Amino acid sequence: MRLGRHRRTGSITRPEHERGITLVELAVVLPIAALVLLVLIEGAWAYAQHSNVRDSAEEGARLAAANFGTPAQIGAQVCDTIDSELRATQARVILTPGRGDGVEGDVAEITVRRSINTLTGIFEGLFLDAGVTSTVEFTLKRPESGTAQWWNGGQASTFACI
Hints:
By secondary structure, the chain is α+β, with helices and mostly antiparallel strands. Helix content is 35%, strand content 23%.
């Protein structure tokens, strides 16, 4: 009894009606594999942005704790630590004094916020409202003048990176 015509391809014999099945499987699997790869790339890029913003906030906390200068000077230094590729979207540095008078031992915080850049642009719509934010709380070290220059009467100061 003959079941059908077979065609010999290499060492595998396939029935005639299965010709091209590998091409169909590739057509199904390849877009899914490409999408998974793009998601991994975008995820790694988002993590790198978060890490950079976190490092910038920590640098700002170090500067503010040591009474580096005015909010504008601290903000400019923080903006300089943000990677140039990430500076393309506007970042904000918010320096918020805690309770107290800006003397040694007072607690404050610095927040760095910026929007997310997508690397491939494919997921642009997913990240429209998303942003990267990092807040670091720190303790003020001994200010030379007795009060931190940036304390600003207990009011938060905002600096925009351009």
